[in-house]
Amino acid sequence: MAEFGKIRDLKKNKNLSESLQAVAEFLISTDHQSIFKQIEKGYTQKVEIDGERIFAIFQKYDSKNGLEPVFEAHRKFIDVQYVHSGSEVILVANCDKAMLTQAYDEDNDFELFKLEEWSNLIMTEGVAAVLYPEDLHAPGIQFKQSELIEKVVVKLRVN
């Protein structure tokens, strides 16, 4: 089940695994602004934290409308999505009533789904969501209006 909150509060959660604590520490201690200055809108930058076991993808994009959301799921990685600036909504659901629309791509670790029901996570600056493999999610949805989002997605390999 997804976890959600201010990154400093997630860091205080003693129930998080050691790896998730390390991710929270990375998000708190990293100079995000210096990395985002190097990225143009629509592009990403990968930063290794612990090789291919833990890495971050810095993204800069405009949020989109959520009229026909496409949900993604991962099998190999937990996503920790952290909004550095802007506001967006991440739609989250379990896979009980999901309809597969794109089969699993093992090289890129994702499969796509359509759903009729979901919950909304309102992501504002400083907020993070921990999304586990069972959490279908549609990120990047506009909150009140489309706006520029600077977001870090940390990928944490599951065993």
Itemize the secondary structure elements and their pairings.
Elements: E1 3-6, H1 7-12, H2 18-29, H3 32-36, E2 44-50, E3 54-62, E4 71-73, E5 77-85, E6 88-93, E7 99-105, E8 110-114, E9 119-123, E10 127-131, E11 136-142, E12 148-157
Antiparallel strand pairs: 1-10, 2-3, 3-12, 4-8, 5-10, 5-12, 6-9, 6-11, 7-8
Can you put this structure into words, describing what you see?
The protein has a single domain, classed as YhcH/YjgK/YiaL (Jelly Rolls, Sandwich). A six-stranded antiparallel beta sheet has the order 1-10-5-12-3-2. A three-stranded antiparallel beta sheet has the order 4-8-7, with no helix packed on it. 14% of the residues lie in helices and 48% in strands. The protein is mostly beta strands. The longest helix is centred in the first third of the chain and has 12 residues. The chain starts with a strand and ends with a strand. The chain is globular, with a radius of gyration of 15 Å.
